[in-house]
Amino acid sequence: MTKKLYLLRHLKSSWDDDTLADHDRPLAPRGRKAGKRMVRYLQTAGVAPELVLCSSAARTRQTLEAVRAALGDAEVRFEETLYAASDEELLGVLRAVEPDVGSVLVIAHNPGLEDLAAALSGVRQEKFPTGALATLGYEGSWAQLGPGSCELTGFVVPRELG
What is the number of structural domains in the chain? Predict the structure, then answer.
């Protein structure tokens, strides 16, 4: 069975309040607008993950809320370890996903997400901006996920969605 892995970088965050810790930065108005475009895309593209793994940061939680309407009844898990995680740390979390789960959406941060997408697919995008979504196909168990094991089947950024 082909598994689907969706890697979503959080939407554009705000730097307006320099007293906030990085973990607590919210989405910027531009990020909220991009979220509306992403919801339409996710619905049109039929992105329906069974499991959502979301960083605990404010901006990733708000990204999840911005696109939640498109995700149906997916199980959501907030993972502290996804905040500022490297590609290897992200891979470790994914390898622990239950074998019967067919599709996973990870909402996290760069450079970890960009590096993970490149490692898994062997394709490095020129840029992996905020709101970017990489879609990868994979044959096998999550425990065996590794470099070069996936096919990049889609890549979209909010600004391309009009």
Answer: 1
